[in-house]
Write a structure and sequence with these properties.
Layout lengths: L14 E8 L2 E6 L25 E6 L2
Antiparallel strand pairs: 1-2, 2-3
């Protein structure tokens, strides 16, 4: 999958599973194990921060 500028879609988080929600929507579930990241985020496409008890997901929609 590519973004509107032609670059590939890359998640900052380690993706554990993907499910298709509709013909134009998917849900990616992320599990970063014990990595919590750094609170100072400069590039949200490459960096993240979370508390130890938090998880992450991405909802991706396209036209």
């Amino acid at each position: 999958m590519r973004k509107s500028n032609g670059e590939p879609l890359i998640f900052a988080h380690k993706t554990e599973g993907i499910t298709v929600l509709s013909s134009r929507k998917l849900l990616a579930i992320h599990d970063d194990d014990r990595i919590i990241g750094d609170p100072q985020i400069n590039d949200p496409e490459q960096e993240f921060y979370r508390e130890p008890y938090q998880g992450a997901y991405s909802l991706v929609e396209w036209q």
